[in-house]
Design goal:
This protein is α/β, with parallel strands linked by helices. 50% of the residues lie in helices and 15% in strands. The protein contains eight helices and seven strands. It has helices at residues 6-63, 70-75, 84-94, 146-152, 162-165, 179-185, 190-210, 222-236, and strands spanning 106-111, 116-123, 126-131, 157-159, 187-189, 213-220, 243-247. It has a five-stranded mixed beta sheet with strand order 1-2-3-6-7, with helices on both faces. Strands 4-5 form a two-stranded antiparallel ribbon. β6 (213-220), α8 (222-236) and β7 form a beta-alpha-beta unit.
Length: 258
């Protein structure tokens, strides 16, 4: 049997390579289709489970007369009374009370012209802060729109104020590479930042007098935005390991992982 010519051998090699590529492509396509089908089936199962749970919850609420939100139902469970969550929620709610003296908490800072307030709670050596959200009730019960006109409506993004980040010791640490760049690039809601800065001098003075370590900063709505900036301010200056617990908080900065 005569040996194949060089041209025939080359053609055979090319054909074999094409066949190998075709087989590999088919295998990849099959694997992709299989994986896609599995993901689709998994997603469908997850959706079905979520729908079933939601239906069951809705049915229970309707059978029980309805009228209460899911959050209210959860907070009415046996685990909630006397819990840390209840204590924090009580602090956040107290910021809306007209008479702070009637609450078990302390007035940490207040700006009456701008209708802003921050309360504090001392729990041993730990300090918890709560910022009030937007309200139309002034300190004496009068109707005021300052939160909307002087704060919420001023939504233009601006750089972080030097008072919040200037001279912060964390910026020079090797353990936080890129932090200075991140903070310099960040943009925040102008009105929210101005609101926090209005309370800041009195708040820092109050914190200095208490001498405690800040463990938690909470807030609802506008209060949540100020709590975000306060936690950043406190943590950068080494005044505590403050966690921010916020509810119904509007976007405070241009970084969505705020």
């Amino acid at each position: 049997m005569p040996l194949p010519t060089a041209k025939q051998a080359s053609a055979t090699t090319v054909w074999a390579a094409k066949q190998a590529r075709a087989s590999a492509s088919a295998a990849v396509a099959a694997a992709t289709t299989s994986a896609s089908s599995a993901l689709t089936a998994g997603a469908a199962s997850a959706r079905q489970l979520a729908d079933r749970v939601l239906s069951e919850l809705t049915e229970r609420f309707e059978n029980d007369g309805g009228g209460a939100s899911l959050a209210q139902r959860l907070l009415s469970t046996a685990a909630f009374p006397d819990s840390e969550l209840e204590a924090i929620l009580s602090l956040a709610r107290a910021t809306y009370e007209l008479d702070v003296a009637a609450t078990p908490f302390l007035l940490a800072a207040e700006d009456i012209p701008a209708n802003l307030r921050c309360l504090g709670a001392l729990r041993g050596a730990s300090v918890e802060l709560a910022f009030r959200g937007s309200t139309t009730s002034g300190s004496e019960g009068e109707r005021k729109l300052d939160n909307w006109v002087k704060v919420n409506a001023r939504a233009r993004p601006v750089p972080l104020d030097p008072l919040l980040v200037g001279g912060a010791p964390s910026l020079s640490d090797d353990e936080a590479p890129g932090l200075a760049l991140l903070l310099s690039a960040a943009r925040v809601h102008r009105g929210f930042q101005q609101a926090y800065l209005r309370l800041r001098p009195a708040l820092l003075g109050w914190l200095e007098a208490t001498g405690g370590t800040i463990s938690m900063v909470v807030g609802h709505s506008l209060g949540g935005a100020m709590a975000t900036l306060c936690a950043l301010d406190i943590n950068l200056r080494g005044r505590g390991g403050a966690a921010a617990l916020r509810t119904a908080t509007p976007l405070t900065s241009t970084h969505h992982d705020q």
